[in-house]
Automatic annotation (TrEMBL):
The lineage of its organism: Bacteria, Bacillati, Actinomycetota, Actinomycetes, Kitasatosporales. Residues 1-24, 260-289 are annotated as: Disordered. This is Oxidoreductase. InterPro entries: Ergot_Alk_Oxidoreductase, NAD(P)-bd_dom, NAD(P)-bd_dom_sf. Pfam families: NAD_binding_10. Residues 18-113 form the NAD(P)-binding domain. Residues 8-24 have a biased composition (Low complexity). It comes from Streptomyces eurocidicus (Streptoverticillium eurocidicus). It comes from the Bacteria.
Length: 289
């Protein structure tokens, strides 16, 4: 066994923020299955079997101290929909460092480099705050088409996927695989101390996704191509305009080929290949999650 894959000997306790979310809940459950102690943090104190629930709100510093108590590592899910998460995340991380937290793993995005927008500022700061760290930079989630995301709602309600991504391809990744890498990053010895770009095994266009979903569900699903401006304005009816412009800009980057790539990160760190889209969508849409 290599140093990269050797599990840490200390059990430790992980504070999982966003424990009711797509990757937070999965990470908490996988840590518990591996025999690790977990504090499941959310605004409502998430109830996850085997985890200690704790109330936590990025926008309420008075919740920070209780959440950090008794933990030595963090899984960090940024506040949803905030285009400037560093404003609340960095004060929390400084308090965590002062409280003796040894390791932090941040969920970011393949589209956001260190120093970039949104989580990019937190990514850039993380190595200066913790000796043990990792930044997960997954591509777009497969669960965007099966869960509670706007794409999934549009599919269920109208059979439509709306993007400004054109025919650009994305190697969509299963949230279960993201969680598996998160567990590795939280528990491996030594810590990764790097950023990790996570993808599925194959880059697919949204037209490809629509065709696969039509085949899997037996219901026609169509990808409707929008312009950047149309996508921005559509999103701005649901989320803050600045965040809408950023997301529409990511679609435009996909159209230009920015996400047409695959990586071996999931295979290299977990010892198994990443799940494919057909496998994941079939599991979640026909067999339940």
């Amino acid at each position: 066994m290599t140093a990269e894959s050797r599990p840490a000997t200390a059990t430790g306790t992980t504070l999982v923020t966003g424990a009711t979310g797509t990757t937070g809940g999965r990470t908490a459950r996988q840590l518990i299955a591996a025999g690790r102690r977990v504090r499941a943090a959310s605004r409502g104190a998430a109830r996850i079997p085997g985890a200690e629930p704790v109330r936590f709100d990025w926008y309420r510093p008075d919740t920070y101290g209780d959440a950090l108590r008794g933990t030595d590592r963090l899984y960090l899910v940024p506040p949803v929909g905030d285009p400037h998460p560093a404003a609340v995340m960095l004060p929390f991380l400084r308090q965590a460092r002062a409280a003796g937290i040894r390791r932090a793993v941040l969920l970011s995005s393949s589209a956001v480099p260190a120093g970039g927008p949104a989580t990019g500022e937190v990514h850039q700061a993380l190595p200066g705050l913790f000796d043990q760290w990792a930044v997960l930079r997954p591509s777009w989630f497969m669960q965007n088409f099966t869960g509670t995301h706007a794409h999934a709602r549009g599919i269920r309600e109208d059979g439509l996927i709306l993007t400004a991504a054109g025919t650009g391809k994305v190697a969509f990744v299963d949230a279960d695989d993201i969680a598996a890498v998160a567990v590795h990053a939280l528990t491996s010895d030594p810590a990764p101390n790097t950023d990790l770009v996570l993808t599925g095994p194959q880059a697919l266009s949204h037209d490809d996704i629509a065709a696969l979903l039509t085949e899997i569900t037996g219901r026609l699903v169509t990808h409707h191509h929008l312009t950047y401006e149309q996508m921005r304005d559509h999103l701005a009816t649901r989320i803050p305009p600045e965040f809408a412009a950023m997301l529409a800009g990511m679609d435009r980057a996909i159209a230009a080929g920015a996400e047409d790539r695959t990586t071996d990160t999931v295979q290299r760190l977990t010892g198994r290949p990443p799940h494919g889209f057909r496998e994941t969508a079939t599991r979640e849409l026909t067999q339940g999650n």
